[in-house]
Design brief:
The protein is of the alpha+beta class and 132 residues long. The chain is built from three helices and four strands; from the N terminus they run H-H-H-E-E-E-E. It has helices spanning 2-22, 24-59, 65-73, and strands spanning 100-101, 109-113, 116-120, 127-131. Helix 1 crosses helix 2. It is globular, with a radius of gyration of 19 Å. InterPro entries: DUF1236.
């Protein structure tokens, strides 16, 4: 039994290492999920928790400071955009909300909704950060 755990741990470590170089937030999520999964469900829980944690970890990584600064420096739009839905990190903004691309960081867009500046992943429309 101990041998199986050692082998699984080694395989998980080898599998996570390349990801660590690519996306730090994903790895943090994967590592946290793996630890939680291991506590709850043993080795199988570690594998499942690692995958779930990687997904969550990549969704909540804050954008670089240069992106936040860019969004903060943009003038407030003259037309107010108000939506009934609550704007929450990790949730998508409604399709009716127009996004503005960030020229120096095309992997991010921004908008102003309900008087709040919001940084968004343009591919998924998920909120990455709310600037208050």
């Amino acid at each position: 039994m101990k041998t199986k755990i050692l082998v699984l741990s080694t395989l998980l470590s080898i599998g996570i290492a390349p990801v660590a170089m690519a996306q730090q937030g994903t790895v943090n999520g994967a590592a946290g999920g793996a630890v939680t999964g291991a506590i709850v469900g043993g080795p199988v829980g570690a594998a499942v928790g690692g995958v779930a944690g990687a997904i969550v970890g990549s969704a909540i990584d804050p954008p670089p400071q240069r992106v936040v600064t860019y969004v903060e420096q943009q003038p407030m739009p003259t037309e107010r955009v108000v939506v009934k839905e609550r704007i929450v990190v990790g949730q998508a903004v409604p399709e009716t909300v127009v996004l503005s691309q960030i020229p120096e960081a095309p992997e991010y867009s921004y908008t102003v909704v309900n008087e709040e500046r919001v940084i968004v992943d343009p591919q998924t429309r998920k909120v990455v950060q709310i600037i208050r």
